[in-house]
Amino acid sequence: MIDLPDHKDFHQAFKRIEKSVKPLIQDTYKMECGDSATHYLWDEDGMVLVMRMGRGIKRQEFEVCDFDVRQSDKYSGYKSRHIRNPIFFDNSRINAEAGLGLNDFFTGRALFNIDLLIDRILMEPGHLREPLMLTLTAAVGQMSKMVFAISERGKNGGRGANVGVQVGSWAIGFWRPELHFEISVWNCFFNKGSALLRALEREDNQKTFPLCNDYKSLAQNEEPSALLVQGCAVDFIESLADSSIKLLITDPPHSDRMPYLELSELWNSILGVIPDFDKEIVVSNARQRGKGQISYGDNLNRFFTKIGPKLKDDGFVAVMFNARRNVCWEGLHPSHGSGDSGLRYIGRFPMVYSAGSLVQDNRKGSLKHDFVLIYVKTENTTIPKVFEEIPGWSTEFPV
Ligand SMILES: C[S@@+](CC[C@H](N)C(=O)[O-])C[C@H]1O[C@@H](n2cnc3c(N)ncnc32)[C@H](O)[C@@H]1O
């Protein structure tokens, strides 16, 4: 882990935010009885149930009354003061459409409350803003209209419209179910912040590495340290000195498995980051992006041709990869892409990583594991025997 906040510092910041912002947020969820609701069930644009539940609160359900509707209406159409307009492309695979805006994903009240949180986070010292924004962005899926309801409707002989409805959770993509929950923004933020606090308390967090500000200090630092660079990896590689890299590990998008920047757009808009969609090496169903299989292969190949000169003569490149269709391997094949780059493929081993993940392709014929493909710079590189000891090591190309 890198540069984690101190547990005590984070805890105090979290408490400060709780003291100042929680009452304001809870006020926006006030019910006629004076208590604050925690969950609302919506059917399209109509509120159908008001609920209170959570730690220490036994689930209570209330019929929707005019007061609840007026409370919500106060914020209808609210425009965020902090969050930029997200950029979406037509991509049915992730249920995105060009022209979608923040108000399609959040109620006005949720956006109002997210702004209150951001106002307060920005008042915290610089080193705490990042973990607090991480807490916020980790929670926004659950703050959105993408939280589906697990409904018993139609079961139990029609015992009542929403009897036993359970709160689902946002998982991935931009599906906005008709029957969905609006959850208290404070509860979502509090749950993620508490999880981060618990993680910060654990002893295994003691091993941290310093973060350098630029590549020069990283290269000169004798202690293990890290540099985080936001931007295009190809541009970054080009900026490095020739023959300076001993090991390059890369995990590029695996062909059409996921349109990463498109999926991250809502979160990038909250963080105020403007990604370079053009430079992303990916296959996307969004036609406007022009990111088909051919451009993907060409760009991956271009990346590889940039690596060769930067490697030391005894350097290695490790590429995490897998794809279902042979054509997706073009840019990596020893006799095609990597051949142009001057790199020599020496073998691969299996890795347990994303193939089993919920968010990966789980259609028939999908992948059971990924590979780490190993390349060297020159014919003369001595291949360490240690590769042969890795379970599943093979010198064959996977396809
Ligand atoms: C397979 S994911 C990496 C996942 C990462 N290893 C992890 O565990 O979170 C591939 C990532 O490469 C990024 N990417 C694509 N083109 C890039 C480029 N030109 N420069 C830098 N990153 C790029 C994608 O946006 C995506 O975030």
What are the key terms here?
2 domains; 399 residues; four-stranded antiparallel beta sheet; alpha+beta; 10 strands; binds S-adenosylmethionine; four-stranded mixed beta sheet; Rossmann fold
Overall description:
- This protein is of the alpha+beta class.
- Helices cover 33% and strands 15% of the residues.
- A 4-stranded antiparallel β-sheet has the order 3-2-1-6. A 4-stranded mixed β-sheet has the order 7-8-10-9.
- It is elongated and about 80 Å long.
- Residues 154-160 have low confidence and may be disordered.
- Bound molecules: S-adenosylmethionine (SAM).
* Helix vs. strand class: alpha+beta
Low-confidence runs: 154-160
Q: Name the average pLDDT.
A: 88
E-strand count: 10
What are the SSEs and their pairings?
Blueprint: H1 7-28, E1 39-43, E2 46-54, E3 57-62, H2 66-73, H3 102-105, H4 108-121, H5 126-143, E4 149-150, E5 166-167, E6 179-183, H6 185-201, H7 215-220, H8 233-238, E7 245-250, H9 260-271, H10 293-310, E8 311-321, H11 337-341, E9 344-351, E10 370-376
Parallel strand pairs: 7-8
Antiparallel strand pairs: 1-2, 1-6, 2-3, 4-5, 8-10, 9-10
Helix pairs in contact: 1-4, 1-6, 4-5, 5-6
The structure holds S-adenosylmethionine (SAM).
